[in-house]
Design goal:
Elements: H1 31-34, H2 39-66, H3 88-99, H4 102-106, H5 113-146, H6 155-177, H7 189-213, H8 217-224, H9 229-254, H10 285-288, H11 290-315, H12 321-346, H13 351-376
């Protein structure tokens, strides 16, 4: 019996074409984004609320200083101090405590109870706002933790904000206590600078966290590969320089140095103010000599402005339109802040202008951080201008 010849395979015949098609599995999303993704939005809203409260706290603290109200409460009672005096006897008791400190004897010996209540409410409001911030942090952190909505890797960062907030309360009392004894009629300027400096650190951390939570981890990792290292480096230097200027501004506020020399660009008709080193020992002049402290603040302001122009010029080389726009905003705010500073000097630092100058520092600080973030995590835009 003849055998049936085998059929030749075609050269491009698919092997196993007669087999049933394999079951395909849809591609899965990135594991990075899958980790507690839903908590990023809630955490970001919570941080933005904290940011707004801290910004208001800085403004209220500045007004408390400008109205000479910071020493009206002479005790630190974190819990029981939340309640203000509720009757005449309680008000008289608080006023009696204030009468015992040097500020009353040397500056306000003619103050009556009605006038005391005005400065008391400023300081009480300042401390009460600090308690509100602490409560918002605690409730928000606890709520995210109980709902298991804390983004992966963010527990330590959120806890750090609370720890710094607690330290800020202790430093606030350390500052106030420096004006309650001896012949002091104000708080120590270097303690005021420490208190304000930590407030800006907290505000900066919150802003940075808000920026990061506004984008997915996957997107941040991809953007990090395109980071503009040199621009990030010089913007970091600008951030540190701006922080130094903020501290010098606090020294000026601490001794009311902005009200002593009201001419510009000279000081008392000369470049360097008279008797810049008259206090002994010499190192105290850098904290207590009104002429020298204001001179340092002015010179640092000029240098910061020049350095800001250098950083802005470097940002013009960035291929990212979003990054260039953010550094444009920094330069614009630098110009505005310098103009406000000059006006503050010329008018003798009235509280209405001085508080605008302080809020300008907040705006400049956040804009520098925002531009620095863009250098670290560039956001590429399409031809149409969309991300």
């Amino acid at each position: 019996m003849a055998r049936k010849p085998k059929e030749k395979r075609k050269l491009f015949e698919e092997v196993g074409a007669e087999a049933p098609p394999a079951r395909t599995v849809a591609p899965q999303g990135g594991m990075i984004d899958a980790r507690r993704r839903g908590g990023r939005g809630a955490a970001r809203v919570w941080l933005m609320i904290l940011f707004a409260l801290v910004m208001v706290m800085i403004a209220v603290g500045g007004l408390t200083r400008l109205t000479d109200s910071g020493l009206s409460i002479t005790e630190w009672r974190p819990v029981t101090g939340a309640l203000p005096p509720l009757d005449t006897a309680a008000w008289e008791a608080e006023f009696d405590k204030y009468r015992e400190i040097p500020e009353y004897r040397l500056v306000n010996p003619d103050m009556d109870l009605a006038e005391f209540k005005v400065i008391y409410w400023w300081e009480w409001g300042h401390r009460q706002l600090g308690r509100v911030i602490g409560l918002v942090w605690a409730l928000g952190f606890a709520g995210l933790a109980l709902a298991r909505k804390v983004p992966q890797g963010w527990t330590g960062r959120f806890f750090l904000l609370g720890a710094l907030g607690g330290a800020q309360g202790a430093i606030g009392w350390w500052m106030v206590s420096s004006g309650l004894g001896g012949d002091a009629v104000d708080v120590a300027s270097y303690r005021l600078a420490t208190h304000l400096g930590l407030a800006f650190v907290i505000l900066g951390l919150i802003a940075w966290y808000v920026f990061k939570l506004g984008r997915e981890e996957r997107e941040l990792m991809q953007a990090r590969r395109s980071r503009e290292a040199r621009l990030f480096s010089v913007s970091t230097g600008l951030m540190h320089f701006a922080f130094l200027q903020i501290l010098l501004g606090a020294l000026v506020a601490g001794i009311d140095a902005g009200r002593n020399y009201t001419d510009w660009p000279l000081m008392a008709g000369q470049f360097v103010p008279p008797t810049p080193f008259e206090i002994v020992p010499v190192w105290r002049n850098f904290f207590e000599n009104a002429g020298l402290v204001q001179f340092m603040h002015r010179m640092a302001g000029y240098l910061l402005f020049v350095f800001g122009i250098v950083v802005w010029a470097r940002s013009r080389r960035s291929p990212n339109a979003d990054t260039r726009f953010r550094f444009n905003a920094v330069l614009a705010m630098l110009v505005v802040q310098m103009v406000i500073g000059i006006v503050t000097v010329l008018y003798g630092a009235p509280w209405q202008v001085a508080i605008v100058h302080q809020l300008g520092a907040v705006a400049l600080w956040v804009l520098i951080l925002r531009a620095r973030f863009a250098a670290q995590y560039p956001k590429f835009l399409s031809v149409r201008g969309t991300a």
